[in-house]
């Protein structure tokens, strides 16, 4: 690890960890969505909205700290990118839940539960990885596994699209469901963006 002669602002590590923990909360709410009825889904959407607001607050706190810190633990651009990508994940998860409620979806297509399981696993890995930014240790397996999960998410997404266009659903229902599964796919992509940013930071700091 690169030797430094200047002190570093360490509160960023705690803020990234808090942001990732909040994402785990969001992924658990997605899991709850699967078995909920319409009334339950509306309540889950409210809790997801609160979690998304908490994520926004965490992101703004990181940006504020970035703008007010003379010394940062790694490149300012990488701090900004990491915070933004973490924020994107929460935004996509909240959007997916909101769409299910707004569209009054009676039954999600088979395969959505697999999408959400992938997101939940990626959330756990991301939360476990953030504290390791302090030392840059044990991160390689994290970004390799998240990239593998994103590839798995791509395959699930393609199968879901094929299912939606097999003639079982009417055109309007296809549009609604496609928007939901697309947003969940964007969440998987955002997890990969976080992992790629962490890899970039680790390479620079090695």
TrEMBL record:
It comes from the Bacteria. It holds the Pfam family PhoU_div. Transmembrane segments: none annotated. InterPro entries: PhoU-like_sf (IPR038078), Put_Phosphate_transp_reg (IPR018445), UPF0111_domain (IPR052912). Belongs to the UPF0111 family. This is DUF47 family protein. It comes from Streptomyces shaanxiensis.
């Amino acid at each position: 690890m690169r030797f430094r002669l200047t002190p570093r602002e360490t509160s960023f590590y705690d803020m990234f960890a808090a942001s990732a923990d909040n994402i785990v909360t969001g992924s658990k709410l997605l899991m709850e969505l699967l078995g909920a009825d319409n009334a339950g889904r509306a309540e889950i959407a409210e809790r997801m909205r609160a979690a998304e607001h908490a994520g926004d607050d965490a992101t703004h706190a990181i940006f504020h700290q970035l703008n007010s810190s003379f010394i940062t633990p790694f490149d300012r651009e990488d701090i900004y990118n990491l915070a933004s990508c973490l924020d994107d994940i929460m935004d996509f998860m909240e959007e997916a839940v909101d769409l299910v409620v707004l569209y009054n979806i009676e039954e999600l297509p088979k395969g959505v539960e697999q999408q959400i399981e992938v997101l939940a696993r990626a959330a756990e890995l991301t939360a476990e990885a953030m504290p390791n930014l302090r030392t840059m240790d044990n991160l390689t397996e994290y970004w390799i596994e998240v990239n593998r999960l994103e590839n798995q998410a791509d395959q699930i997404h393609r199968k879901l699209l094929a299912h939606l266009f097999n003639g079982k659903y009417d055109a309007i229902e296809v549009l609604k469901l496609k928007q939901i599964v697309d947003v969940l796919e964007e969440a998987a992509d955002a997890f990969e963006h976080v992992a790629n940013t962490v890899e970039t930071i680790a390479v620079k700091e090695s």
